[in-house]
Specification:
The complex is a heterodimer of chains A (228) and B (469).
Chain A lengths: L1 H14 L2 H13 L4 H21 L5 H18 L5 H7 L3 E6 L7 H12 L3 E4 L6 H10 L4 E5 L7 H12 L7 E5 L5 H6 L4 E3 L2 H13 L10 E3 L1
Parallel strand pairs in A: 1-2, 1-3, 3-4, 4-5, 5-6
Helix pairs in contact in A: 1-2, 1-3, 1-4, 2-4, 3-4, 4-6, 6-10, 7-8
Chain B lengths: L9 H13 L5 H19 L16 H18 L1 E3 L4 E3 L3 H10 L3 E4 L6 E4 L10 E4 L4 E2 L1 H12 L6 E2 L3 E2 L1 E2 L2 E2 L5 H21 L5 E4 L7 H6 L11 E6 L5 E2 L1 H12 L4 E9 L6 H18 L4 E8 L8 H17 L5 E2 L10 H16 L4 E3 L14 H13 L5 H15 L12 H4 E2 L4 E2 L1 H16 L8
The chains are: A alpha/beta (228), B alpha/beta (469).
Amino acid sequence: MNENVLDYLAQAVVEGNVEKAKELTRVALEANIDPLDILNKGLSKGLDSVSGKFSKLELFLTDLMLSADVVQASVHILRPRMTSDKVEHVKLGRIVIGTVSGDIHDIGKSLVSTMLSAAGLEVHDLGVDVPAKTFAKAAEEREADIIALSSLMTTTRPYQKEVIRFLQDCGKRFKYFVVVGGGATTSDWAREIGADGYGKFAEDGVQVSKELMSRRISPPLDSPIIIE
Amino acid sequence: MIEGVIEISVDAFLEILDRAHKGAPCEAKDWDRKIIPSKVSEKLKEHGLKGTCRPECPINTDDSLADEFFKAGFDLAVETGMLCLDTERVIKFTEEEIRKTIDRAPSELALGQGPDRRVIRARKPEDSTKPIAVSPLSIVVSEELWVPLVQGIMETKEVDVIEGPSFETICGRPIMAGTPYETLSGMLAARFHKEAARRAGRPNMGFLAVGASPTIFGQFGGYGVVGGYDPKNTVALVLSPCEMKTSYASLHKVAHAINCGGIVYGGSWSMIGGFPGPPEGAALAGIACALLQWAVHLASWGTCNPMDIRYMGNCGPEAQWALSVFCQSLSRNTHLLVCAIPNSVAGPCTDMLLRETAAATINIATSGASSADGPRSAGGRYTNYLTPLECKFMAEVLHGSAGIKRDHANEVVRKLIHEYEGELRHPPKGKSFPECYNTKTLEPSREWLDTYLRVRRELKDLGIPLDDL
């Protein structure tokens, strides 16, 4: 029975069915299934399936967004039922994300934002053409762990560096990990500007963020985590 | 005024601006998440186009399918319109207005003068008229290598019109979008282009500019100003965000082109896997968005290329199929001057870059596009990963493929895709310009030249009629 509930929950993630997922999450909790198992064997299993279908063009960006909504809704129910050490264990991080100043390209950033959200991270999407000051302010207000910066164009890429410099000048660089990505960015660029992480593809951004959150050290890193 | 075109009407543009301010309100988030996916899906269903993508047949050979896509794309353009991001209002047109837009669009235009004069013509699938080769895309190049690299491209007689590249810096300072650095870079690009053209002995080439103008400032700085790009010889490049959106930055560029007596190239993208969904959805949204480039940006030449979000290129089988449907539907049903882009992901000095370029270019030529613009060496991701040789190769294949039958082209493209398909997500980076070229003599390295000759020979063996060297 327990196995079935988790399978149904995984299926709800694939279908993007928020109400069904909320109900199944409650059913699973009432059946005394460990919240971590609900997360790992239900929600994550569903996400793996979504990811596989996306890579085969059986699901698309809109479907990913719905699945992300499902995961967020379930995690919201699970969180209060976890013991404090388990909450710490599953803390995946709080992220503010946006496309930097001068750049109005949305789709790559939206894909990363969705995948981060689907992976259970708390994501605050600031949109496009976001100035350094706005990133810093939002990170402070949201008590973010990570600031994620997207840039599609080489002429907007320097604004990623600008955000890092702004954080340094305000004495806040030590508060946030900074992850960069987008069409104009490379691993060399991430190293050059002193970012903490770089991912070539959207799913790499999720892996980088999880890796950053799993390290029990403060930003900035001596060398960035690179996945490409 | 550029030969063959009609001056853009200020009244027509004012009408567009009025609609951008008075159209139905719609938030960008709703546009992306609700309007585009639902309308695209509705039109695919209505016209029986769901599940028609055949990756094993990367160049569509079914004319009736291309025509049905056109009808669906036309309906989508009329029913959806284009969202203006700054006003969050939808610019819409009646069926009659879109038809008139298509009717009054030029079917040819001439760029350049004297021996460098080139005529861009409307074509049909399998047309023997040679399409026009535009190179390079706005790939980033260091200031010190910019002029010699562009000179090398211009010395390639097969390259017809020049667009990029972009600068990494201006006098050592990073160019930041929306700042006066960008304004200055617009003029610097024009001056460097002229110097490269002078050195190459082709001073009268036509241009598509300003390549690196993410906001309006690069365009203001370089287009139509004293010492900058001459609107008589340069089409104003107006790129807009996907899907089916415009912005004040794009509309400013149109306004500036009007003020300078110039004409517009309107371009955007349509994402496979993105909001339009499957390859069929991206092809459909691309067709609608292309029609709206002419309607909203008053373009005389343009595109809205399908791209695959999974590897940010279009040389895989699904994207090639979508690209072929996009080109064929527009070329069979209109006389619009449609451009298409080989969005390669591998870098210079690799077989893969040449094979990707060949596949996309053969497709573009046989599917009836008027021009190809590219290739996108190394996905445009790395500084100085661009050389004249792949631009020459694209132009040779483009010209050589004019008149080839789609059945034959399909065989060739299928074989080419088979060679690199597994590497699309992790392509070889290849070598930079200084690593595979003598930047003084502008000669390719032995390795790069041999690679070029080998892949070129492969194509000839496959029946692509390339000129003897």
